[in-house]
Amino acid sequence: MHLVDQHISMEELRRLATERFGDMVKVVVDIRLEVMVVGAQLHADEEAFLLDRGSQQGDLWGINIWPDKPRADWIEFDSMINLRPSWGNRSRGVEDPEIRRIIVDVVAKLTS
After folding, report:
1. How many folded domains does the chain comprise?
2. What's the rounded mean pLDDT across residues 94-103?
3. Which of 47, 19, 36 is nearest to 75 (CA)?
């Protein structure tokens, strides 16, 4: 599991994908602090890591990155940690288009 607060290369994302799932990396993004944790077996482990560092629950969103897919398709908004009915997110996806946009921006900033 790796905290990404500056930059991570595509080579490193591919390496992490190969080590865990073959072609995908689990990621939790803190949209307020603009950091992410990559490479754990479970989104919940990455979420716990960020919470221990002071992140707020409402700022954390789970995604999957597929490093070898085209940039337009490489982020999958799917994680059990996204299920927050009391906060208006009733699925494993990220239902709010503005939050999805922020996630994409944070990932782009940290991976470009």
Report:
1. 1
2. 97
3. 36
